[in-house]
């Protein structure tokens, strides 16, 4: 069996040559000091002792950045003990190579009750508004992105005509209906550093996306994904999972989906994906580790 972690012979030879060259510089410097070499020569040797390794390191670093290859000078000490492919990408050690995240209540807080209660200051009224909007089938159409804002809100109002004016006022501004989770970006980056592709798959409206840019800043850190409104399809329809798989060349058995809603995880499993119903970060991390996802 081939040891994939074994250092190639060429790299070993280069490393040995480098060590010999560096030791030679130190020996020369020591000899010069012992025989009383003129000060200018001695200082030149001192500078060379420091400058040559630094210059060599910079050259190796630049080569790695230009070619995209992992080198000894790559600025990723957290992955120095990981396997890397020929292009410098970390190779995951388990069977999973892709982690797909839901967004609401996984990478962000879908804080709709707090949002509504701040608008009306009445818990009973807030519950009625939530039942007429977020808890209704119209909210799914909000996420599907096929209706205008006016059409969606009119649908909410029809669900509880007695409070139609309050409903309309509540959804005039959606700022902070989704709020930031501080661990979202560090979680994404840790998975990527360990070699995993990180995607998102979420039922999401453009209205909420535009209203909550701070909470959604993590999107730029991922390797891509799907927000339902862009493709007019929502979970748990198999079509949205298949679309993500096709778009990003996913292998079902090598993919794990994390969502806070069981029906969405069930749909993923029906397609051969691995799935985790999100409860909290700690338990999710343990379930990922059980699948061999280590970061």
UniProtKB/TrEMBL annotation:
<protein>
    <submittedName>
        <fullName>Haloacid dehalogenase superfamily, subfamily IA, variant 3 with third motif having DD or ED</fullName>
    </submittedName>
</protein>
<dbReference type="InterPro" id="IPR023214">
    <property type="entry name" value="HAD_sf"/>
</dbReference>
<feature type="transmembrane region" description="Helical">
    <location>
        <begin position="41"/>
        <end position="63"/>
    </location>
</feature>
<dbReference type="InterPro" id="IPR006439">
    <property type="entry name" value="HAD-SF_hydro_IA"/>
</dbReference>
<dbReference type="InterPro" id="IPR036412">
    <property type="entry name" value="HAD-like_sf"/>
</dbReference>
<dbReference type="Pfam" id="PF00702">
    <property type="entry name" value="Hydrolase"/>
</dbReference>
<dbReference type="InterPro" id="IPR023198">
    <property type="entry name" value="PGP-like_dom2"/>
</dbReference>
<keyword id="KW-1133">Transmembrane helix</keyword>
<keyword id="KW-0812">Transmembrane</keyword>
<keyword id="KW-0472">Membrane</keyword>
<feature type="transmembrane region" description="Helical">
    <location>
        <begin position="12"/>
        <end position="35"/>
    </location>
</feature>
